[in-house]
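Forwarding the complex inputs:
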Amino acid sequence: MRLTSYTNYALRILMYCALHPDKLVRVQDISQAYGISRAHLLKATRQLGQLGYLENVRGRTGGIRLGKSPEAIIVGDVVRHTEELDEFVECFNDSKNTCPLIGVCKLSVLFAAGLKAFFAELDKVTLADLVSHPAALLSRLDGETVE
Amino acid sequence: MRLTSYTNYALRILMYCALHPDKLVRVQDISQAYGISRAHLLKATRQLGQLGYLENVRGRTGGIRLGKSPEAIIVGDVVRHTEELDEFVECFNDSKNTCPLIGVCKLSVLFAAGLKAFFAELDKVTLADLVSHPAALLSRLDGETVE
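Prediction (whole assembly, two chains):
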């Protein structure tokens, strides 16, 4: 049971953009800051754009920036979009299930309740909360000291 | 983000044993009932034995049975043992982390809170609760109707 790297990268991309609000960020910058390959980041960037979390500005001087205010980006919502929750356990997905107990077993209801509680925690936090202490984060990302 | 098959199998093994309390169960029986390969079940059976959830009776007429009462087996505890939770996100594990934000980022605290809430739900349910309606479950597993 682990978060996908994809979700992890999506959250890091959003944090990077929130920490650099006044510029168009290049995927290359994010790649360098985190040591993640550009190819891995591009897929997440595209999906975040489709979901409205990022705005893509094309062209030679283009880049990405947040498509919503950090206060409006709820961590739980992002993770719901980037994780395939109907794959959490095979009985969540009729077409992939192999267990003969599907429909009469209480485990699927229990796991659904567990996930609901998990996301209720994540829904308490926005992207703005994640970057509410920018100096410490920026010094790690850019090696800069922010006054 | 998905439960490992290993945990899924461990829970199914425990349910099978709880549903057949008066006999020594063979792994082969569980394999046939669920359509899971014996090899996949054996690893989980061994760990469940080490944890005291199962008792192994050796020999030609041997088999497995619950090592504790179903009321004493809490689903959350089983899943905590079978899932590698320090792998949930890379920053949970210093030795595997690659993110430069480790230690100053709030995400790891948030995911830990989410997992705590997830397990709080699973801790509300015991193996006895999972098999509190044996007739419906047994008819699927054994094709039997229980009076």
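The CA atoms of residues 23 and 144 of chain B lie 16 Å apart.
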